[in-house]
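Sample pair:
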Amino acid sequence: MDKLRAIQYFIAAAEEGSLTGAARRLEVSVPAVQKLLGSLERELGVLLFDRSVQGVKLTTSGDAYLDCCRPLLSDLDAAETALARSAVRPSGTLVVAAHPQLAHHLLLPALPEFHRRYPDIQVDFRTVHRISDADAAAADVLLLHGWPEAGQDLIHRKLGMARTLIVAAPEYWASHGVPRHPDELTKHICLLMRNPPGIVLDLWEFERGRDKVSVPVNGWLISNAREVVLDAVIGGEGIGRFSELTIRAQMHSGRLVPVLLDWEVQGGPPLNLLYKASARRTPRARLFIDFTIALLRQHEAAGETVAHHPSTDRPAWHRRGYGRASSALRRGGVCAFRSTSEAYRARSAGARQRRDAGRFGLLLTSFSARCSCRSAIPTRRRRRSTSSARAWRSCRGAIGLNLEDQVELRRALTNRQRRLRRNAAEVGEDLL
């Protein structure tokens, strides 16, 4: 039995005073009303109506039951009405958190438009730097840039990255010249920023077609405050690297002039939208998420953001933590290769080196075992035997190793050679 429908039939019959009137009001047949009311009475174990030719009349039990059912049905109707109204005109408080730069240059200029569309939604806006901040945990929707470590309770959407530009004041370009290639930046004063993890961003990476260039830059100023670096660049003190979203006003006014526009600057942090899985079921959160995505699509169409880009992956220098990004060059990271052809040659050389190192390791093992056996041979016989040095040179020549060129192998073999010399001294023979 559909108890809710039975209650609706019961209230209609009580208010109309007849089963026929209830059937007409509910647009059903009279037998359907009779059947459902009979089932309701049998379930309750009482008679709700006194039936007669003139119609139906509530019993004492029926009158008491009606007083209980009317508020229940009224509350249900009110809930359905409120739900329908919220779907059309959502309301309530929405907690939004964003990085200060994204808040100032992206979201805050667009919030008045969101308010005009949905005037009943109150936005509680907070600025955060990391996903670990206290305000980030209370947010319904987060907008961050970088590579946040999102928990399993959050849905993480990478929305691409903001376009990055190399800029300086017109006075600086007039006095120092305009670079035509990224390599020329090493001759310029580049003002640097330190990101929140503490990494100095002194490795500027560029890409044009198949050409990739990594340039270690330097200057007299390093700061973790973007505004400090930006003010110095506007003042003509050097070159800066900034997101286009954050310097639109300065470029439109002519205070900053971009260069190397035929190159694409790499290494910029991606834009991330994070929200709880339950947020999509909340109308106000769902509307804000869709509004933010549409806003970024507008910037993408204007060329200020890129939706899909390989640099959205965390770079190697970022994973190393505190220090300088340019240390990747000294440590032989992938970014040290100045072109794809160089990277290919380096990978091929590395493969050959690993192959030769494997063969060399086997020969060393055999050679060391032979030296151990020779230590038990009498001195006279050892002198008549083949020189160990000659044996060593023959082994080295068999695999075609050039120790002068194989720097990594020389470092790995130094300790082994010393041990071999000590063994040679013990048996009275210079093996090497």
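Residues 280 and 287 are 9 Å apart (CA to CA).
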